[in-house]
Specification:
The complex is a heterodimer of chains A (115) and B (114). Chain A has no helices and 12 strands. Chain A has 115 residues and is mostly beta strands. In chain A, the strands form 3 sheets. In chain A, strands 2, 5, 6, 10, 11 and 12 form a 6-stranded mixed β-sheet that branches. In chain A, strands 3-9-8-7 form a 4-stranded antiparallel β-sheet, with no helix packed on it. In chain A, strands 1-4 form a two-stranded antiparallel sheet. In chain A, a hairpin with a 5-residue loop joins strand 7 and strand 8. With 114 residues, chain B is mainly beta. Chain B is 0% helix and 54% strand. Chain B has no helices and 11 strands. In chain B, strands 2, 4, 5, 6, 9, 10 and 11 form a 7-stranded mixed β-sheet that branches. In chain B, strand 9 and strand 10 form a beta hairpin. Chain B is globular. Classes of the chains: A mainly beta (115), B mainly beta (114).
């Protein structure tokens, strides 16, 4: 079965500093991987996704993620964090046998941004 | 991008009553919608897949008689929590994929059962 691990429950980053959120997945074949952000009162918003091809994926709001098959990881990065980036971030995986529609989510990482 | 709405955004009901939550795709049609449950400070757990014109598919451990799903049209799916109890209090979120299989999520409905 698929699973996603986000080892960091909370992360605090100073505004302007760089950010890396970790995500490890467990899946037998090549997964489809996603990063979503959830802000209070807002629906989950897709930041970026990896299906195939270039393992470094660019997303919205200046985020990027790198797929590393050897490490089963899909870490999210941003070079300079803004106060508005404070939110909950979820990594998710989808599999071919569900038409890539059923998403399995990690437990989430709450990002706090300090001034 | 596509928009998915949910109504209501927050509902309080008494134990033993039923409550209906609506999920609408506003500018696209969705033959499939998904319902998730999210406990405080926890992740989203898929409850069921709502299929337009046919029965919903429930994930293991989800009581189909308690969580009734109806996908009556290509833009509307409803989740009815029947005979609600305090342990059903949670944040319920729906999502719908567009024609490119990208999922769009509703803002969620917070259910409190007293």
């Amino acid at each position: 079965a698929q699973s996603v691990t986000q080892p960091d429950i909370h992360i605090t980053v100073s505004e302007g500093a760089s950010l890396e959120l970790r995500c490890n997945y467990s899946y037998g074949a090549t997964p489809y991987l996603f990063w979503y952000v959830q802000s209070p009162g807002q629906g989950l918003q897709l930041l970026l996704k990896y299906f195939s091809g270039d393992t470094l994926v660019q997303g919205i709001k200046g985020f990027e993620a790198e797929f590393k098959r050897s490490q089963s990881s899909f870490n999210l990065r941003k070079p300079s964090v803004h106060w508005s980036d404070a939110a909950e971030y979820f990594c998710a995986v989808a599999s071919m046998n569900t038409g890539f529609q059923k998403l399995v989510f990690g437990t989430g990482t709450r990002l706090l941004v300090s001034p | 991008g596509a928009v998915v709405s949910q109504h209501p955004s927050w509902v309080i009901c008494k134990s033993g009553t039923s409550v209906k939550i609506e999920c609408r795709s506003l500018d696209f049609q969705a033959t499939t919608m998904f319902w998730y449950r999210q406990f405080p400070k926890q992740s989203l757990m898929l409850m069921a897949t709502s299929n337009e014109g046919s029965k919903a598919t429930y994930e293991q451990g989800v009581e189909k008689d308690k969580f009734l799903i109806n996908h009556a049209s290509l833009t509307l799916s409803t989740l009815t929590v029947t005979s609600a109890h305090p342990e059903d209090s949670s944040f319920y979120i729906c999502s719908a994929p567009d024609s490119t299989y990208e999922q769009y999520f509703g803002p969620g409905t917070r259910l409190t059962v007293t």
